[in-house]
Amino acid sequence: MNAFSRRKPQAPRGRRHRRVDGRRLALLGGLYLVLLATVAVLAAAFIHPREIAAHAQSESPGKIVLTVESQGRRTRFDMRALEALPQRTYKVTTPWYLRPVSFQGPLLRDVLAAAGAHGTHIEAVAVNDYTADIPFEHAEAYDVIIALRMDGKPMSPRDKGPLFVVYPYDRLPPQVREKSFDLSVWQLDGLRVR
Q: How far, in Å, are 21, 86, 163, 188 from residue 130 at the CA level?
């Protein structure tokens, strides 16, 4: 054979493999995009904006806002259950506000009765784990309320809500009044009765 005969030029090996790898990469990329599109369609089918808005509300029905523990039993209250109890309203002067403020909510003793709670001390627990030891007799003697509203509106956490232990401060004996401010737990989360 003649040395000068024409040979078919061969592509260098590296380029041929790169073309194959490029095709594989394009195929995998396409599959990845199809997978992402499928996940997006499924997510859109199962997530409803109305449900997201309902869960974002702090006072949505069914959300537990208060737990009462007594004698090994836990009773949980949502806002509707607390609003269903007889309500009291007090316009009181406090050290936290510059003017008299109206608070509305059920009597502490009614909440305890609804939970079947008995004892001598009530440990009021705030969301941040601050606690105050309220003598059980205060619930009976001083008409303490679990305030749900301030000036007719639900209380946000910024306004010491959604629940706030409120005494009728202006009607208390002076020695009880000063102590009652320390027992007024805001952002109330639980009551442990012993």
A: 63, 27, 14, 9
